[in-house]
Amino acid sequence: KNKIEHKCASDLGSGLAKCTNLSNLTILLSINKIGCEGVLGLGSHLALCPNLSNLALYLHNSKICDQGVSGLGSALLKCTNLTNLTLDLGQK
Predict the structure, then answer these.
(1) What's the pLDDT at 1?
(2) Superfamily the domain 6-88 falls into
(3) Are 52 and 17 spatial neighbours (Cβ–Cβ below 8 Å)?
(4) How many CB atoms lie within 10 A of CB 52?
(5) HSE (side-chain half, CA atoms, 13 Å) at 67
(6) Which Gene3D superfamilies match (predicted)?
């Protein structure tokens, strides 16, 4: 368990968005407090990664609301090269 909150998750996304050749990414942020705001920020920044084709997001037990999940989905739709997605939002 870490103590990563919404700003850290959004900042992580901001940094990753600068990696223009990023194609494969696994993010393990489970059991944190990133919440809706954090997942929305992360998703909006991942949408700026034009070459992202393989993405695994492990976010269970991260205090994400329905609006955050919906926003993440909408953001990932902008990743036009995304062919493989693993998304763990379950409560464990």
Answers:
(1) 60
(2) Ribonuclease Inhibitor (3.80.10.10)
(3) no
(4) 25
(5) 6
(6) Ribonuclease Inhibitor
